[in-house]
Amino acid sequence: MSTPRIKINIKKIAHNAKTLNRLYGSKGIEVIGVTKAVCGNPDVAAALVNNGISILADSRIINIRRMRKAGVQAEFLLLRTPLLSQAEDVVKYADISLNSEVSVIKELSKFAKMNYTKHKIILMVELGDLREGIMPLDLDDTVKQVLALDGIELAGIGTNLACFGGIQPDNDKMVSLSSLAKNIEEKYNLNIKFISGGNSANYNWFMSTNDVGRINNLRLGESIYLGCETLYRKPIPGLYIDAFTLVAEVIESKIKPSHPFGKIAQDAFGNVPEFQDRGKIKRVILGIGLQDVQVSGLTPKADIEILGSSSDHIVIDARKIELKTGDEVEFNLNYGALLSAMTSPYVFKKVEENFWMPKNIAKALNKNTAIIKNYFQPSLLKKTTLD
Ligand SMILES: *Cc1c(COP(=O)(O)O)cnc(C)c1O
Fold first, then answer.
1. Is pLDDT of 386 > 90?
2. Which of 177, 240, 261, 324 is least crowded, fewest Cβ atoms below 10 Å from its Cβ?
3. What domains does the chain contain, in order, with CATH numbers?
4. Could you tell me the distance, in angstroms and rounded to a whole number, from the CA of residue 223 to the centre of ligand 1?
5. Buried b (16+ CB within 10 A) or exposed e, 125-150
């Protein structure tokens, strides 16, 4: 089978999505499923939707288009605050977007009016992480300007923490967001639908509080895919942490020295490498490298060690394990590795344990058995796509 490939276990992702949706739902918090780490993969997206998630969010319009085109039935939210030059497509493809700049919202308003639609926005508030967001003192004025725009519906306010500055979404931050929401609602006599408190990093806050205040929404990616919270990367009880597996193939296997010989200078990336001398070792080369995946985010499943990598190779110490050319080696991935492997066109995406099919096909199945035959062609079931 083709390598390198990333195996995507849909059943495990579905289980994680369902479990988190129930958990957060128990205190009145709705989960938005974030698809950017899987580049809007329609099989993954459908698994989220089929397990109770009705809004999907991605940072790229191209991924939202991909899911729409595949027939995924959801509302779509654009996560990255829009580029000014992108406003027309945002209105066309996204139902909701996160925003922090009035100039951009005015542009969204222009295209919404042109298309006789209303575009929903969630205003992002800066609470200390220092990525996107309006400073709290400026929120009131921004709301006033937004409410005056046609074609725009102020659907919510939100914040994003633990992404750039590593700031914890703790009780103080969530109380701040709740009270900002309350002030705006009172002042402008509004009912704000989404009060979106953050991302996978909000797990610890959620578990430690009985009163979530006005927070009624979170946008979750990593905890669904990798089964962990993201402040300390601890596994969340009851979730799978191995829904994704990266598979690479051995292209050379020899007993060689562990220390390079000759005069040392720079390696392929301009670094002067240092190596430990541990005598002769089982040096194995895998046909996968930095063009495929962020190698530093890989953990081998077997007891072997990654010694280093270049664009197209990973060199490992196979220790006590026998590996020959053609053998496969498996890795778990962290978020960076997952994102890079899903983004790389060189990594085959192998969807496994999937029982979802597009709605139009499911409908047709009831009427026409010829379609059943076509749909269940082995090539379609064992889908390996270079997409
Ligand atoms: C990526 C992203 C998320 C999801 O973050 P996870 O850590 O994957 O849960 C939520 N909100 C915004 C604005 C994002 O960019």
1. no
2. 261
3. 9-226 (3.20.20.10), 244-346 (2.40.37.10), 357-381 (no CATH)
4. 10
5. bbbebeebbbebeebeebbeebeebe
Residue 266: CA atoms inside 13 Å, Cβ hemisphere, count? 4
The residue contributing the CA closest to ligand 1 atom 8 is 221
CB of 79 sitting under 6 A from ligand 1: yes
Q: Which atom of ligand 1 is nearest to the CA of 124?
A: 13
How close is the Cα of 237 to the center of ligand 1, in Å? Answer: 21
Handedness of CA 135, 137, 140, 144 (dihedral sign): negative
DSSP-assigned beta bridge partners for residue 256: 281
Over 70: is that where the pLDDT of 3 sits? yes
Examine residue 82 and say whether the peptide bond preceding it is cis (omega within 30 degrees of 0). no
Please write the tens of the pLDDT for every residue from 207-257: 999 999 999 999 999 999 999 999 999 999 999 999 999 999 999 999 999
Distance 35 CA to ligand 1 centre (A): 9
pLDDT band at residue 354, thresholds of 50, 70 and 90? Answer: confident
What is residue 273's predicted lDDT score, i.e. its pLDDT? 87
Report pLDDT digits (tens) over 256-315.
999 999 999 999 899 998 899 999 999 999 999 999 999 999 999 999 999 999 999 999
- The answer to whether the CB of 221 is under 6 A from ligand 1 is yes
Tell me, in angstroms, the distance from the centre of ligand 1 to residue 248's CA.
Answer: 29
